[in-house]
Write a structure and sequence with these properties.
By secondary structure, this protein is mostly helical. The chain is 68% helix and 0% strand. Helix 3 crosses helix 7, helix 3 runs parallel beside helix 9 and helix 5 packs parallel to helix 7. 45% of the residues are buried.
């Protein structure tokens, strides 16, 4: 028998699907500033890349994207379209470079198309599509809410999906071997629960987007001579 507290298999599988790099939103084409960090000599080996990504998890994902997704998750469940629009505007306004904004908007729009196929009768997808444009944390929150999973499980999936994409970008850009990539992913996986708990504890007064070095490196990436990634 499945324990009463366990996540239902259907919801678990949906979250695994959402966290998969195979989700057709183009996440694999972005490094979120990591490629610029490699070019600047900030992430040059396994240890420095691990530290860079752990910092990004704690300072960017936990305080901004995961926190916004947590609030959006509740808004979608409550059918609060005004709150969804407010959160989406906050995410868009806090992207600190053109590339980071492009990433959030492009992946958000792509997830809308995926949701139209998965949940064609869900009117909330139309609400999401009407945003100008939808951003990734808000779009992911709807996809996760539609699974019926609790918000903490949804955020764990979102964070692991980010981590897996980030590590694959590092393997290609630094470059690193697959074993080094797996060790970095293990370190990120160990840190994800605390990052998710910090995101869940954030509110409108404490949610923030402030990562100056990431913003500077992301802006530099726009004119970087040689690039594999879109950010």
């Amino acid at each position: 028998m499945t324990p009463a507290s366990a996540l239902p298999p259907a919801a678990l599988l949906q979250l695994i699907w959402l966290a998969s790099p195979a989700l057709p939103v183009g996440g694999f084409s972005y490094s979120e500033g990591l490629e610029a960090a490699v070019d600047a000599g900030v992430a040059v080996d396994e240890a420095s890349t691990r530290d860079w990504l752990l910092d990004q998890l704690a300072l960017v994902q936990a305080r901004s994207d995961l926190a916004a997704a947590a609030s959006a998750f509740a808004a979608w469940q409550a059918g609060d379209a005004a709150r969804v629009r407010e959160l989406n505007a906050w995410v868009a306004a806090t992207r600190e470079s053109a590339e980071l904004r492009l990433q959030s908007e492009q992946t958000g729009r792509s997830l809308v198309q995926w949701l139209r196929q998965r949940h064609p009768a869900d009117a909330r997808v139309d609400t999401l599509a009407a945003l100008a444009p939808p951003t990734w944390p808000v779009a992911f929150a709807l996809a996760a809410a539609a699974t019926g999973a609790p918000v903490r499980d949804a955020l764990l999936a979102m964070a692991f999906g980010w981590a897996e994409n980030a590590v694959q970008a590092a393997v290609r850009a630094v470059p690193l071997g697959q074993s080094a990539g797996q060790r970095i992913l293990a370190a990120l996986a160990d840190a994800i629960p605390a990052a998710v708990d910090a995101a869940l504890a954030a509110d409108d007064d404490t949610r923030q987007s402030f990562a100056p070095m990431l913003a500077i490196l992301s802006a530099r990436h726009e004119t970087q001579y040689s690039r594999l990634f879109r950010s």
